[in-house]
Amino acid sequence: MELKKNNDGGWSPYIAGGLSGLVIIVSVLWTGKFFGASTSFVRSVGMLERFLAPERVAQLEYYIRYLPKVDWQLMFVIGIFLGSLVSALLSGSFKWQGVPDMWAARFGTNPALRGVVAFVGGVVAMYGARLADGCPSGHGLSGMIQLAVSGLIAMIFFFIGGIVMTRLVYFGGNRK
Amino acid sequence: MNAEMIYGLITGMLFGFFLQKARVVRYDKQIGALRFQDMTIVKFMMSAIIVGMVGIHFFDIFGLVQLLYKPVVLGENIVGGLLFGLGWGLLGYCPGTQGGALGEGRWDALWGILGMITGAGLYAETYPLLMKKILGVGNYGYLTIPQLIGINRWLVIVVFIAGVLAMFRWFENKGL
C-alpha cells in the first residue's frame, strides 16, 4: 500500500487516522471516554435556552436526560477547533473561506446561498444524529471500534443518506 | 475547570490536530467521499477504527477498559441515520469535525454549528412526541457483531481489518 504524502503538505490520512486511533485508546484507558460529539449540541442549546427561558429548560425531559452543562465531550469538541487552528496556523494552511471550492464550482460564490443550505443541513443532520443516538464520532468511530451493531447500522445509513443528498445537490454537476 | 474537562480539551486538541493534518475536515473532502471522488475521509476514519478496535479489545481482555456502546434500536438508527446523512450531504461537515473546519478558517461551518444547535433544540422540543410515536421501535438492546453472528470477536476483527486493507488497496489503485 502506498503511503505517500498528500501534495498539499498534509499528512497521509492512514497515518493521521491511525494516530487518532491511538488517541482513542489512550483516552478510553485513561479517562474511560469514547469519542462523541452530538450530545454537546444538546447541552449547548440547553445552556443557551436557559438564558431565554429557564422554566422551559427545567421542564423539558431531554434536558433532564442531558443536563445543560460543560462536560468532557463539550471540551473535546472545543478542543477539535483549537487543535485544528493550531495545526492550520503552524502549517500555513489556514484559509479564510466562506464558500467551499466544490460548492463554488457548482453554485457560485454567493456566501448567503451557501449559508442557508449549510444551516438547513445542520438542522437536519443534528436532528437525525439525536434520533440515531450518535454521529460519525459516537456511532462511526466509537461504535465501530467496539463492534457495536448499532454503530454499523448507523454508519451505513449515514453514508446512504449522504450519497443520496449529494446526488441530488450535484445532479449532472461538475466532475473534478 | 475540573480534570475531566481538561482531559477532554487535550484529547480534542490532539484529534483536531490530526484531522487538520490529514485535511479531512473540509467540505470538499467530505462531499468528495460521498461523490466517490476522493476517499481521504474514509481512509482516515477506517485507519482510526482498525487501530482503535485492536487496542480497545486487547485491553478489554485484561479488564482495563469499560466498553460503552449504544443499543440497537432499528427505527432510530435507520431513520436517524438517514436524516443525518441527508443533512450531512447538504452541510458537508460533521458535528465533531466542523469545529475543525472553522479552526482552519472555513467559516461557513459557523452556519452549520448554528443549524446544529437549532436542530438539537428542535429535537429536545419534539422528544416527548417522539417518545410516544417512534422511539424504541425495533429495540434489540446491546448487541455486538460477534454476538449477532455467534463467533469469536477476534475472528470478526481479523476479517474486518482484511476487508478494510483490501478497500484501501482498491482506493489507491483507483487513485481515489
Topology:
The complex is a heterodimer of chains A (176) and B (176).
Chain A: H1 13-31, H2 38-52, H3 54-59, H4 61-65, H5 72-91, H6 101-107, H7 111-132, H8 136-145, H9 149-169
Helix pairs in contact in A: 8-9
Chain B: H1 3-21, H2 27-34, H3 40-61, E1 72-73, H4 74-91, H5 98-103, H6 109-133, E2 139-141, H7 145-149, H8 153-174
Antiparallel strand pairs in B: 1-2
Helix pairs in contact in B: 3-8
Q: What would you say this structure looks like, in words?
A:
The complex is a heterodimer of chains A (176) and B (176). Chain A has helices spanning 13-31, 38-52, 54-59, 61-65, 72-91, 101-107, 111-132, 136-145, 149-169. With 176 residues, chain A is mostly helical. In chain A, helix 8 (136-145) packs across helix 9. Chain B has helices at residues 3-21, 27-34, 40-61, 74-91, 98-103, 109-133, 145-149, 153-174, and strands at 72-73, 139-141. In chain B, 51% of the residues are buried. Chains A and B meet through helix 1, helix 2, helix 4, helix 5 and helix 6 of A and helix 1, helix 2, helix 3, strand 1 and helix 4 of B.
